[in-house]
Design goal:
It comes from Acidaminobacter hydrogenoformans DSM 2784. Pfam families: AA_kinase. Keywords: Arginine metabolism, Kinase, Transferase. The protein has one domain: 3-Layer(aba) Sandwich (Carbamate kinase), CATH 3.40.1160.10. By secondary structure, it is α/β, with parallel strands linked by helices. An eight-stranded mixed beta sheet has the order 3-9-2-1-12-16-17-15, with helices on both faces. The chain has a four-stranded mixed beta sheet with strand order 8-4-10-11. Strands 5-7-6 form a three-stranded antiparallel beta sheet. Helix 1 links the parallel strand 1 and strand 2. The chain binds adenosine-5'-diphosphate (ADP) and phosphoric acid mono(formamide)ester. Adenosine-5'-diphosphate (ADP) binds next to loops.
Length: 316
């Protein structure tokens, strides 16, 4: 792993928001500053990084604010809400990361790129919304919102009810050339929130659609396309587990491609949380048999890159 230097990082929700803390921009900035200390450390260890991040809570709140303000100003289309979420999350990461890099006397530019990601118009995900966005509600509140506003809402991993939207597969990163051109000189924050989902028309134009792409799958697309050595997926837990939250839970240091696929078949990973991460890891390693994907926590990221922490997914 010593020469593996090119890393695409996918940042999980806890890198942007602390559970239970107010969902304000100010609170997010405080969390992002801490997150960026870990990211700066990775950069200072000599890794070349690009950063993807989630946006479920943020895009949902922007949408809610926009819909609530309808009486005074026209509501924003969903794809525009996605672009807005990329903008303000990227802005926070730019501030936090630049500060953390400066503290380490490392002068490297940081930019965020509003990034479009092409999805297929006929993706079956449009018929089956699964991606939770925005705040949590009680079951009673959710039922009322479903009846009054026509929202699709589902229970989210025992944490409460949330609005859900379609989450189609990322097929192509529209701004990929720019990411590649910037790579050698700049830390690029891209495919934020999985990218703004767009459909590509035959005449080469793009049209935004109402959906939220999974950021782990978009980060995987990016990692393949830029020829990254490592796809580093950062979340709350240090390791992926089998029999998660059961008395016989076993944390995994390593999974081969076959083992990972078998655990997926056994239903070991919760859909909408750990499953897309393992699926992204599988895709990356299947396409790049000599490379690796790592799933770990932000706090263990540096150790994981050195092979001393996290769950490593490799071909064999
Ligand atoms: N098999 C598993 N192994 C480890 N964690 C799991 C597993 N299944 C579900 N989880 C949960 O999934 C969470 C990661 O999903 P989530 O919080 O939705 O992701 P994100 O970090 O992208 O916001 C972990 O923090 C853990 O609580
Ligand atoms: N776009 C996306 O995957 O966001 P979350 O990580 O917040 O679900």
């Amino acid at each position: 792993m010593s020469n593996a230097r090119k890393v695409v990082i996918a940042l999980g929700g806890n890198a942007l928001q602390e559970p239970g803390s107010p969902a304000t921009a100010e609170a997010q900035l405080e969390v992002v500053k801490k997150t960026c200390d870990y990211l700066a450390e990775i950069s200072c260890r000599g890794y070349e990084i690009a950063i993807a991040h989630g946006n479920g809570p943020q895009v949902g709140r922007i949408l809610l604010a926009s819909e609530t303000a309808r009486e005074v100003t026209p509501a924003m289309p969903f794809d525009v809400c996605g672009a807005m979420s990329q903008g303000y999350i990227g802005y926070h990461i730019q501030q936090g990361l630049k500060y953390a890099l400066n503290k380490r006397n490392k002068n490297i530019p940081v930019v965020s790129l509003v990034t479009q990601v092409v999805v297929e118009k006929n993706d079956p995900a449009f018929q089956n919304p699964t991606k939770p966005i925005g705040p949590f509600y009680s079951e009673e509140e959710a039922k009322q919102l479903m009846a009054e506003k026509g929202y699709v809402m589902k229970e989210d991993a025992g944490r409460g009810w949330r609005r859900v939207v379609a989450s189609p597969m990322p097929r192509k990163i529209v701004e990929l050339d720019s990411v590649i051109r910037l790579w050698d000189t700049t830390i690029v924050i891209t495919v934020g929130g999985g990218g703004v989902p767009v459909i590509e028309h035959l005449d080469g134009t793009f049209e935004g659609v109402a959906a939220v792409i999974d950021k782990d799958l978009a980060a995987e697309r990016l990692a393949e396309d830029v020829g990254a050595d490592i796809l580093l997926i950062l979340t709350e837990v240090e390791k992926v587990a089998i029999n998660f939250n059961k008395p016989d839970q076993k944390n995994l240091d390593h999974m081969t491609l076959l083992e990972a696929a078998q655990y997926v078949d056994e239903g070991q990973f919760a859909p909408g949380s750990m499953l897309p991460k393992v699926e992204a890891a599988i895709r990356f390693v299947r396409a790049n048999p000599s490379k690796r994907a790592i799933i770990t926590s932000l706090y263990k990221a540096v150790e994981a890159l050195e092979g001393k922490a996290g769950t490593h997914v490799t071909f064999n």
